[in-house]
Q: What sequence folds into this?
């Protein structure tokens, strides 16, 4: 029996370590084709980080992660896009200058 990916927020870990998963890659395609701006408003532990990571992997052209999934045959893997991902998971910053510092830290790491 496959392991459940509890607390795992990266598609690569779920695929490479053979965790149980549901193919939701069609929704990635629909988001890209039909939308413009999205606000992900969901409670904690509802897969927001995994969705954002799945989008990142698709935009970066990591086709091998989508092998056997719906998106593998429905995505332009030749076109790749740079991805900038900000994480504010460490908590709330009470001061604007600290928020700006955190943004610059994340920009300079990559």
A:
């Amino acid at each position: 029996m496959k392991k459940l990916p509890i607390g795992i927020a990266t598609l690569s870990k779920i695929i490479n370590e053979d965790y149980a998963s549901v193919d939701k890659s069609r929704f990635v395609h629909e988001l890209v084709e039909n939308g413009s701006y999205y606000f992900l408003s969901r409670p904690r532990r509802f897969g927001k980080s995994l969705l954002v990571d799945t989008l990142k992997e698709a935009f970066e052209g990591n086709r091998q992660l989508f092998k056997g999934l719906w998106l593998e045959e429905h995505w332009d893997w030749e076109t790749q896009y740079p991805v900038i991902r900000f994480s504010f998971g460490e908590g709330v910053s009470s001061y604007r200058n600290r928020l700006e510092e955190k943004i610059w830290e994340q920009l300079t790491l990559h």
User: Anything to note?
Assistant: The chain has four helices and no strands. The longest helix spans residues 96-109. The mean pLDDT is 90.
